[in-house]
Amino acid sequence: MNSPQVVSKDEWKAAREELLVKEKELTRARDALAAERRRMPWLAVEKEYEFEGPDGKMSLLDLFEGRRQLVVYRFYYGPEVTSYAGDGSYPERACVGCSFVADQVAHPAHLNARDTSLAFVSRAPEAEIQGLKERMGWELIRWYEITDDFDADFDVDEWHGTNAFIREDDRIFRTYWIDGRGDEQMGNTWNYLDMTALGRQEEWEDSPEGYPRTPPYQWWNYHDQYGG
């Protein structure tokens, strides 16, 4: 291993401050990109989609659970899966990359507090999905079986990907989509919100006129203290 040089405390701090300038540039660029997402046109969802859940049939609208926004991750789990690590295979194991994502999903209460729901969907039968959730400790993730063309229609039929939707009453619109290495960032509450049409909904954000906004910290809470 070719290690970097060892320096004094002052030299280390100077090097870190130099890098911090670039890190702040990256943060500002990320915020600007999220602001552009909030100005993306919406695509109306004209078809009806049906999923199988632990309590039976559910529509795409049902997946919102009454909230304004919905983020849907297509988890690669089913007979078609080929991406395993180590021993094990379907149905005991799912795609190792998607499983890595699931391990990092934050408590859903924080997303819910921003009027946003999170759902996973897969081709595997619902009974197998529930079994995998239990084995892997993913009980808090809401996860449903795809029963129609949802994955093909939203560009996640061949792999994994994350779609964002918003609703106006019973009308649903697709607002954004991330796949590939973009999914590496998913799991964190902030990154989910940054890909949605309404964003973090905080006052400092560059959002269109009339978008919901509240001060930071004033809506944040411990996950067991949110009302509703």
Strand content: 15-25%
> What do we call the CATH topology of one domain?
Glutaredoxin
Label the structural class: alpha+beta
Average pLDDT score: 95
Q: Biggest sheet, in brief?
A: 8 strands, mixed
CATH top level label of one domain: Alpha Beta
Number of strands: 8
Helix content: 25-40%
Annotated CATH homologous superfamily of one domain: Glutaredoxin
CATH architecture classification name of one domain: 3-Layer(aba) Sandwich
- Count the DSSP helices: 7
Textual characterization of the structure:
30% of the residues are buried. A hairpin with a 2-residue loop joins strand 2 (50-53) and strand 3. The protein has 228 residues and is an alpha+beta fold. It has a domain at 40-194: Glutaredoxin (3-Layer(aba) Sandwich). Helix content is 29%, strand content 19%.
A few lines on this structure:
The N and C termini lie far apart (53 Å). 29% of the residues lie in helices and 19% in strands. The mean pLDDT is 95.
Identify the notable features of this structure and list them briefly.
228 residues, Glutaredoxin, 8-stranded mixed sheet, alpha+beta, 7 helices
List the helices and strands and how they pair.
Elements: H1 9-37, E1 43-44, E2 50-53, E3 56-59, H2 60-63, E4 69-74, H3 96-103, H4 108-112, E5 116-122, H5 126-136, E6 143-146, H6 150-153, E7 161-168, E8 171-179, H7 189-194
